[in-house]
Structure formats: C-alpha cells, structure tokens
Amino acid sequence: MGSAQIAAARAAAADAGHRGHGLHWLLVKPTGLSITARRPGVRRRTVDAMLAYVDLCAELGGKYLVHGSPQQRRIEAGDTREARWRAPRSAAAVAGRAAQAAW
Description:
Helix content: 40-55%
Number of helices: 3
Strand order of the largest sheet: 1-2
Structural class: mainly alpha
Largest sheet: 2 strands, parallel
Number of strands: 2
Shape: elongated
C-alpha cells in the first residue's frame, strides 16, 4: 500500500468508528514464509515481512497483529526442538520495532 492508500484506509476506519483494530492472518503472502523454517533465508524474509506489517499496522492506527497462519507456524517432522527454539526468536527480532510503534 502506498502512503495515500494507507491514509485513506486509516481515515475510513476512523470515520466508521473503529478503534483497537489490527492486522490478522499475516505471513500467508508472500508465499513461503515461516517462523520455524530450517533455512535462515526463509526466516529472514519472514522477519522482514513481519517488520513491514508492524510498520503498516502502526500507520493504519492498529493495535495488534496476528502473525502467521497454521502453515507459517508448522513444525516439520523431526525438527520439533529446533523449531520451537527458532519461532520465538523470529518474534523477538520484531519486538523492538513493535515497542517503538506509536501504539
């Protein structure tokens, strides 16, 4: 979304009386994102997308984000221990940006 589209969406939400909204079902697009992926490049692209969603949500005046769908949190067979280590680190990589957002 461009700046004008973001401003228009924020104004439309405000005009409709929406407060405390956010973004949901994130990381479905672009395809191939995962917070638990074994490949570092996939996780980096995922974190980059998460950072962009934090920024977008803040610009829209949102208060929360729901990152992922079941597929983007899926743990591959035989990778449970490591995936459970990687998932919170993906979230932690975004936490600072979220804390700085004007929410």
